[in-house]
């Protein structure tokens, strides 16, 4: 008994995956109970079917992947009748296909549970009569518990990893507009600058300031102001290509990064600046509140060979300031596209 417990402890501590744990445990179950085969079943993707996920077989011939209707399994019949250890199974369970097909004479089954839910079943099968010894009852129960506890631990680890990934995503996104935030934008810009130096592509970088944001906040309140930012973010994002990046880096400030062909960079800069400026002149219906945007100040520059993140952002910032001064010197007209619907 002591050797078996030590072996179990070694298996559990050394397992890195479910398969690492289950396969040697099934082999141990066969040798401990005197059964010819031990298998772990789980619900199949097809409704109402049970699938053999893992098997250690020493003579019966059951293959992994075998699917059987749950209602036709020895496990369900045993659970329903409260007979988890059955000798001469071919007689009381003779109507079941699997008992007839594999000439099963002795059968033991234990549910594998995780947090009270049945994950699958652990089964031992033999074509011979196997005496109901202490080991024949003890081993399946202990092994089923170990598999269930391991599965629960793996589930917790997956939940933890998913939570960490979600937190990492949240940390890199602006919580209001769901656009990339300042940190993510800087990391992306650094990578794209290196990419343009390596591949000889052009890169446009620009700031977009919503000059009307303060007046919207003052006139309609903070909630409408937030809805205005979200609506404008969606409008600007929809105006860009999938390869372009739009991020929010301040209360009323966005940044755009757009890769372009080097030979077409100047024309692309003019087109993108004009397009974003016109798209920012609009009106939104924000839950019944009409909010007009007179436009944004768009400062766009081309990244130069050898530019650092700080250098290209400084030039884009200066271009944005120049665009703001120019806007103040001329009246703004509502975009010919008309009002846009916001959220």
What does the model show?
The protein is an alpha+beta fold. The chain has two domains: 2-168, Beta-Lactamase (2-Layer Sandwich); 182-341, Alpha-Beta Plaits (2-Layer Sandwich), CATH 3.30.70. It is 46% helix and 24% strand. The protein has helices at residues 2-14, 18-33, 74-81, 97-101, 134-171, 182-199, 213-220, 222-238, 265-279, 309-328, and strands spanning 37-43, 49-57, 67-69, 85-87, 106-114, 117-126, 202-210, 245-248, 253-260, 281-286, 289-294, 296-302, 340-341. A hairpin with a 2-residue loop joins strand 5 and strand 6 (117-126). Helix 1 (2-14) runs antiparallel to helix 2 and helix 7 (213-220) packs antiparallel against helix 8 (222-238).
Helix and strand arrangement:
Elements: H1 2-14, H2 18-33, E1 37-43, E2 49-57, E3 67-69, H3 74-81, E4 85-87, H4 97-101, E5 106-114, E6 117-126, H5 134-171, H6 182-199, E7 202-210, H7 213-220, H8 222-238, E8 245-248, E9 253-260, H9 265-279, E10 281-286, E11 289-294, E12 296-302, H10 309-328, E13 340-341
Parallel strand pairs: 10-13
Antiparallel strand pairs: 1-2, 1-6, 2-3, 4-5, 5-6, 7-9, 7-12, 8-9, 10-11
Label this structure with key terms.
single chain, 343 residues, alpha+beta, Beta-Lactamase, 2 domains, six-stranded antiparallel β-sheet, four-stranded antiparallel β-sheet, GGDEF_dom
């Amino acid at each position: 008994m002591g050797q078996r417990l030590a072996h179990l402890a070694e298996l559990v501590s050394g397992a890195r995956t479910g398969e690492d744990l289950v396969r040697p445990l099934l082999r141990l179950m066969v040798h401990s109970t005197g059964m010819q085969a031990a298998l772990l079943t789980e619900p199949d993707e097809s409704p109402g079917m049970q699938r053999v996920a893992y098997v250690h077989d020493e003579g019966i011939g059951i293959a992994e992947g075998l699917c059987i209707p749950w209602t036709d399994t020895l496990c369900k019949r045993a659970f329903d009748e409260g007979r988890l250890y059955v000798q001469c199974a071919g007689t009381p369970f003779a109507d079941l296909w699997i008992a007839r097909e594999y000439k099963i004479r002795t059968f033991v089954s234990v549910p594998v549970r995780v947090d009270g839910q049945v994950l699958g079943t652990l089964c031992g099968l033999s074509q011979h009569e196997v005496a109901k010894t202490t080991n024949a009852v003890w081993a399946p129960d202990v092994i089923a518990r170990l598999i269930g506890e391991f599965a629960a631990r793996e589930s917790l680890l997956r939940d933890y990893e998913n939570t960490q990934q979600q937190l990492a995503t949240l940390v890199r996104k602006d919580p209001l507009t769901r656009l990339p935030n300042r940190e993510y934008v800087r990391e992306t810009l650094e990578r794209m600058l290196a990419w343009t130096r390596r591949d000889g592509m052009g890169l446009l970088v620009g700031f977009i300031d919503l000059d009307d944001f303060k007046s919207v906040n003052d006139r309609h309140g903070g909630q409408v102001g937030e809805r205005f930012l979200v609506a404008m973010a969606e409008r600007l994002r929809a105006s860009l290509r999938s390869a372009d990046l739009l991020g929010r880096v301040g209360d009323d400030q966005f940044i755009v990064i757009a890769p372009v062909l080097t030979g077409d960079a100047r024309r692309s800069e003019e087109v993108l600046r004009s397009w974003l400026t016109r798209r920012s002149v609009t009106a939104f219906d924000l839950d019944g509140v009409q909010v007009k945007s007179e436009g944004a100040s768009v400062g766009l520059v081309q990244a130069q060979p050898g530019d650092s993140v700080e250098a290209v952002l400084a030039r884009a910032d200066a271009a944005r300031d120049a665009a703001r001064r120019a806007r103040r010197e001329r009246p703004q007209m509502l975009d010919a596209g008309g009002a846009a619907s916001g959220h």
